[in-house]
């Protein structure tokens, strides 16, 4: 398990900011520990590991910004309908860019596509050995939080490999307590025999 998550509210310049993020580390557990201590400062100096990330900033409970690098995902629920707010950065999807940078995408039988036969995502930060062939720029989206907005789910790919967006929303909406909802999603992913790291944050909106 190489994940690390952030979920907190802070006050700054008269605004309330909700900060939520999941970092899915790979190639070593130094990355999540380093993130916890240094909040991404100088991460590229730290060993051979790397990470994907999905982050959300909620401004005064009214405006939501999402950014992601890699295959951790953000899903918003409006009136119970799942809306994917992030982009899964998969090697086959961005094969042309990887090859332009001098890398390659392997497609071995029984395995997922991998950059240079190693990494199963086309965007990440860190990963010194693959840095020249990867992108680290995030995709971003934003949404207004209205009365129909139920909840937000952030989760690493261990959840999404075994669960569709709408399934996750349907499960999470059964619980008023967001921590119980997040725990239930993780339990369900385990019950479905997920083999990857599973981290989940559920944010409930007041409506």
UniProtKB/TrEMBL annotation:
Under the heading PROSITE patterns, the entry gives:
PPM_2
Q: Name one GO molecular function term.
A: protein serine/threonine phosphatase activity
- Can you give the residue ranges of the PPM-type phosphatase domain? 1-205
Pfam families, alphabetized: PP2C (PF00481)
Q: Which domain of life is it from?
A: Eukaryota
Report the protein name in the record. PPM-type phosphatase domain-containing protein
User: Which species is the source of this protein?
Assistant: Coptis chinensis
């Amino acid at each position: 398990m190489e994940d690390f998550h952030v979920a907190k509210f802070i006050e700054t310049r008269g605004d309330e900011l909700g900060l939520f993020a999941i970092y899915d580390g790979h190639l070593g557990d130094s990355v999540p520990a380093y993130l916890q201590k240094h909040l991404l400062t100088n991460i590229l100096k730290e060993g051979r590991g790397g990470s994907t990330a999905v982050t959300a900033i909620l401004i005064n409970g009214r405006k939501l910004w999402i950014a992601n690098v890699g295959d951790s995902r953000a899903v918003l629920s409006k009136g119970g309908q799942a809306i994917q707010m992030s982009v899964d950065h998969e090697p086959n999807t961005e094969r042309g860019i990887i090859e332009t940078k001098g890398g390659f995408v392997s497609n071995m039988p029984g395995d997922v596509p991998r950059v240079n036969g190693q990494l199963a995502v086309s965007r990440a930060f860190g990963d010194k050995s693959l840095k020249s062939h990867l992108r680290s720029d995030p995709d971003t989206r934003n949404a207004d939080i209205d009365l129909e907005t139920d909840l937000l789910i952030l989760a690493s790919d261990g959840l999404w490999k075994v669960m569709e967006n709408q399934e996750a929303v349907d499960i999470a909406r059964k619980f008023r307590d967001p921590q119980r909802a997040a725990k239930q999603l993780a339990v369900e992913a385990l019950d479905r025999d997920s083999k990857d790291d599973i981290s989940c944050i559920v944010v409930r909106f007041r409506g």
